[in-house]
Amino acid sequence: MAVEWKNLDTLASYEALQKESTVDLASAMTGESGEKRAKTYQIPMAEGLSYNYAAKCVDDRILAALAKLAEEAQLSEKFAALYNGEVINTGEKRLVLHHLCRGQLGEAVQADGTDKRAFYVEQQERIAAFADRVHNGEITNEKGEKFTEVVQIGIGGSDLGPRAMYLALENWAKTTGNMKMSAKFISNVDPDDAAAVLASCDIAHAIFILVSKSGTTLETLTNESFVKDALTKGGFDPAKHMIAVTSETSPLAKNAGYLDAFYMDDYIGGRYSSSSAVGGAVLSLAFGPKVFADFLCGAHEADVTAKETDPLKNPAMLDALIGVYERNILGYGATAVLPYSQALSRFPAHLQQADMESNGKSVNRFGEPVSYVTGPVIFGEPGTNGQHSFYQLLHQGTDIVPLQFVGFRKSQIGSDVVIENSTSQQKLCANVAAQIVAFACGKQDDNKNKDFKGGRPSSIIVGDQLTPASLGALLAHFENKIMFQGFLWNVNSFDQEGVQLGKLLAKKVLAHDTDGALKVYSDLLNI
Amino acid sequence: MAVEWKNLDTLASYEALQKESTVDLASAMTGESGEKRAKTYQIPMAEGLSYNYAAKCVDDRILAALAKLAEEAQLSEKFAALYNGEVINTGEKRLVLHHLCRGQLGEAVQADGTDKRAFYVEQQERIAAFADRVHNGEITNEKGEKFTEVVQIGIGGSDLGPRAMYLALENWAKTTGNMKMSAKFISNVDPDDAAAVLASCDIAHAIFILVSKSGTTLETLTNESFVKDALTKGGFDPAKHMIAVTSETSPLAKNAGYLDAFYMDDYIGGRYSSSSAVGGAVLSLAFGPKVFADFLCGAHEADVTAKETDPLKNPAMLDALIGVYERNILGYGATAVLPYSQALSRFPAHLQQADMESNGKSVNRFGEPVSYVTGPVIFGEPGTNGQHSFYQLLHQGTDIVPLQFVGFRKSQIGSDVVIENSTSQQKLCANVAAQIVAFACGKQDDNKNKDFKGGRPSSIIVGDQLTPASLGALLAHFENKIMFQGFLWNVNSFDQEGVQLGKLLAKKVLAHDTDGALKVYSDLLNI
């Protein structure tokens, strides 16, 4: 069937969904009904994860309406068009191929005169070989000493995803003997960022990864200079301490200023680049190529699940559908991501970019204004920390904020302590279980200050342990959820024109080519 | 004049404000009008900071209406009642005295049979003396060796504020020779948090600060056990490595298990405790007592400014008024905090707690439901990082999100690099100046995908450099803004009943006293 790109509010199934009466969540989640929902409203995910949506404002009736919406919006067909190489990024006239970094989902995709799957695999193999040579001491610093640290220089998609993935696996790697090199990250153009990271580094034994697809990102090139100055001042040759991750056509490619260069292309958006060379170089150096390969396997397994046409068997699709229902019909403006895992401390920041930069749009893929709301604000912090912070508003504030919990049965390090007959890991898990029910059901109290209305929806992704494979599956779930939501809203989730105007004006400020308010602010900031 | 606590929607000035037509921000900020606004819509703040609100949706007419609202809502009188010791925290029947930690704003406040200002000063002096003795080697580990690290164990208010303040000053302290001991923080009940921090510590030379007002916070006591186990296994005596910050009536007070204990009381809420012993102990140990004293001076100077009755001379009050106008009349649901300073990386997370936990309420201070929205969702990340992330939605999303920028003319470390004729610090400042105008004015484009509507409000706080004093002023500004907003919404900003239900249910889960959905989730998480 040919794919038709239609606005959400032109779909008959959306109109039908709007007419369905809403679910009384507090009542639905109480007693036997709640027990049955908690047991049955659950979908197996890749790598032993599961998606439980019992505490969402849905029932069989709403789910049936959402399934019709998925069908009419041709979500599966659109995903197939994407992974089979159609020009899905219409604004920039590009294919969207991040799935192909982790496996072949459909037909072979040819572009730029090459098979793209083969291209991505070739880069993975080149990175793996390079990392092995660094780890076994074939590639060393000027004195023949092993490199012990890796520092990524990048910003936005070249920073948030790889950083979140590194932090997610650092303690796992230390515990399982997979830690090859520690990793650090420099991103901000604030000179204190680079200065502080460099001060914490053993630069004699550090290898720096410069990540910029175009090779022209101002922040990143500025920070590269900062690092090169430090290397030179320390008596080191920058060309012996730096590699590049970039596109084949960038000035950083085949450049004698780098030990080596690894390639991505225009079909991998920055915020979807964790499974490309952008994540691959730093994660392979830090943890070894096998760990990165396992991460990709987990992501691919989740991608395969995302091909299911029935949303009740496709957690990313169902998550997307429920999110659109909450945003467009229930009218909720924000979503909180709450991992009960300290290792996922920066995962919400990565999803904040992935989601808000993809779907924070006011025009459809044809450049026409849409007359409905699109992407919500995404924010979050790890639990249980958040419980002692912003959960007050989530429980008793005047706005309802849908919640996405993530939890694991086992910790990564395995050290624990028993207090009051339970381990810390049990306390952590008990808290997330308790929160789901507290948010959904609430608790009446005659003192209205202690009254909880409930009716606050959440879902939870549960896994056994956060490992490279389950992390890959988790990441791919959210990438695919965002993609499906973009299809529903009929926006182009793969460009980001909204970041351009600020760049343009900043250049004017730096060139002192300003007047009016901009000149006043420039003076105020002493530029 | 006697203070009357009234709901926002009962005030005649609020009704009048609702009737004012809204400002066309894009037009107001363009050309001469924009230049004039940028120059004049600015208020000096404490410690050389300034609050510029030119890019907010206000004009002289709206400002006059807001001033009337401030007067009718008796904001100044309510602040005076607070600092003069009335029971402002009605839910818990407590005074609210965090301002008194940093200076005397009004009358002497007697409570618990003592002058409270004298009590807080006494604790500061005791902490200063203790820190000096640690720094000069009078207090040492069992082997007579100096302590070199400090590790704070706390959660929520005992963690986020002190952590954000420490990170804000770490590079400043290293650069100015004020770094006495490095600090780390353990907060999450996730056992991987404590295990990872301990693995990164030199525990032989570490002093641990246990922070819990009640002495009964489960996460904190659990992490204390974790630390004590590690100390004992390492052959160290926990009682020689730990101090407590708690209330005088807690089980941690006057307890032989600690080297010493420093006191706070029930009149300091956790999220307002950075200027009490909770922030004082870790900051004085890390940077020396003089630095903490300077931080308090800056906060006090901001508190004094907050006493101004004219909102055009009182940045915290005006910020609060504009925020309520944006939330209740313009209907914006979230606010982003965007410091252009890597040192403020965790400042947004602290404000997220301070704001959302204070004003995320649905009942007024008498426990009656309110019929208007209260506290918004607060989120943020440092710029320029955010520009390459969620700014897409801020510029072109379907919802408008008001923005709070913060910027400094000078970096903390002072190392910099010139690329394309500008330093990194200049690039950083140029970007924030550019963003204000880009958000306000937008830019028309026939390609609607590249069109920026503008009309997106922001304000900026500008300072010369982030120092202990300016950080104190910045923190106090936001604390006072939140307080004034609580007065406007007529909520009790100083309790947090919304965190209780989750705690209660978590205990049931751990006691295996569950049924229905809660039991299913407990099983799913293997508790």
From TrEMBL, chains A, B:
Entry keywords, A to Z: Cytoplasm, Gluconeogenesis, Glycolysis, Isomerase
One Pfam family, short name: PGI
Catalytic activity annotation: alpha-D-glucose 6-phosphate = beta-D-fructose 6-phosphate
Enzyme class at the top of the EC tree: isomerase
UniProt cross-references to InterPro entries, sorted A to Z: G6P_Isomerase, G6P_Isomerase_C, Phosphoglucose_isomerase_CS, SIS_dom_sf, SIS_PGI_1, SIS_PGI_2
EC number in record: 5.3.1.9
Recorded metabolic or biological pathway in which this protein acts: Carbohydrate degradation; glycolysis; D-glyceraldehyde 3-phosphate and glycerone phosphate from D-glucose: step 2/4; Carbohydrate biosynthesis; gluconeogenesis
Cellular localization per UniProt: Cytoplasm
Entry's Gene Ontology molecular function annotations: carbohydrate derivative binding; glucose-6-phosphate isomerase activity; monosaccharide binding
GO cellular component: cytosol
Superkingdom of origin organism: Bacteria
Active site, UniProt feature: E357, H388, K503
Protein family membership: Belongs to the GPI family.
Biological function: Catalyzes the reversible isomerization of glucose-6-phosphate to fructose-6-phosphate.
Protein name: Glucose-6-phosphate isomerase
